[in-house]
Specification:
Chain lengths: 111, 114
């Protein structure tokens, strides 16, 4: 069966510091990968998606970036965090028929 | 443009009562349809999905949903809710040819009264 991992689970970072969130998927190959953000009390905002290694599509212009160095690894980064980057970050994977399966999420607080 | 509307931000029901959460979508053809549930501080779990065929689909945790093409709706139902059903529920639509992206509703928070 497939499993998706995200770490860290929680993170508190000062404004202007760098960020690296990691997501890995087990039990499948060549998945589509997604990064979402949920601001407090808000819905899901798609940040990035990837259909293959090195292929990243950005949905929202911002100071975040994503990379996919391996087939089942998806990384969300920032060089300098803003207060507005606080939120709950979710990684998901999918293959057919658009269904997506989510990781447990990372709670990021920028102070 | 495609869109998904969940008209109820919050719904409160008594434990043991029936539940219906509404979802309407805007799309020119039959989309792929999904309901997800999110407990506080956790990721989203897929409850059920509709691709084609029988318009009444069964999901996990006793939930079901009915696709009504004429109303562009995919409402989620449960005959008797339990306190553990308190969570946020998201409806999503996969529009064919959209690079595998889902269009999300804003979510409905379900509150259970004891």
């Amino acid at each position: 069966s497939q499993t998706i991992h995200q770490w860290p689970a929680t993170l508190v970072q000062p404004v202007g510091s760098p960020l690296s969130l990691e997501c890995t998927v087990e039990g499948t190959s060549n998945p589509n990968l997604y990064w979402y953000r949920q601001a407090a009390g808000r819905g899901l905002q798609l940040l990035f998606y990837s259909v293959g290694i090195g292929q990243i599509s950005s949905e929202v212009p911002q100071n975040l970036s994503a990379s996919r160095p391996q087939d089942r690894q998806f990384i969300l980064s920032s060089k300098k965090l803003l207060l507005s980057d606080s939120g709950f970050y979710l990684c998901a994977w999918g293959k057919t028929h658009y269904e997506q399966y989510f990781g447990p999420g990372t709670r990021l607080t920028v102070t | 443009a495609q869109s998904v509307t969940q008209p109820d931000i919050h719904i409160t029901v008594s434990e043991g009562a029936s539940l219906e959460l509404r979802c309407n979508y805007s799309y020119g053809a039959t989309p792929y349809l999904f309901w997800y549930v999110q407990s506080p501080g956790q990721g989203l779990q897929l409850l059920l999905k509709y691709f084609s065929g029988d318009t009444l689909v069964q999901g996990i945790k006793g939930f079901e949903a009915e696709f009504k093409r004429s109303q562009s709706s995919f409402n989620l139902r449960k005959p008797s809710v339990h306190w553990s059903d308190a969570a946020e529920y998201f409806c999503a639509v996969g529009a064919r040819g959209s690079n595998y992206q889902l269009i999300w509703g804003a979510g409905t928070k379900l509150i259970i009264k004891p």
